[in-house]
Specification:
This protein has helices at about 5-20, 25-35, 55-80. By secondary structure, it is mainly alpha-helical. This is DUF3073 domain-containing protein.
Length: about 80
């Protein structure tokens, strides 16, 4: 089907649904929409991770201060030049 025929068919179906509503079981709809308490599935607790995920964290803690000192020395040398 071409786009024109397809659109005409969709328009026809939409009009039928809009103006020629069928019998609706209101009580069934109300039960479905109102519902009762919603049951949430119980998920297992997340796995406990080790405190140190980064294998280089120990090195950063040990040598991090030295890196900061080196950078400040380089800045001082650049300012003097």
């Amino acid at each position: 089907m071409g786009r024109g025929r397809q659109k005409a068919k969709q328009t026809k179906v939409a009009r039928e649904l809009k103006y020629h509503s069928s019998d609706i079981d209101v009580t069934a709809l109300q039960r479905e929409l109102g519902g009762g308490p919603v049951r949430q599935p119980v998920s297992p607790p997340p796995p406990v991770e080790e405190e140190e995920d980064d294998p280089y964290a120990a090195y950063a803690a040990r040598y991090g201060a030295l890196d900061d000192d080196d950078e400040s020395d380089q800045l001082a040398t650049r300012r003097r030049a």
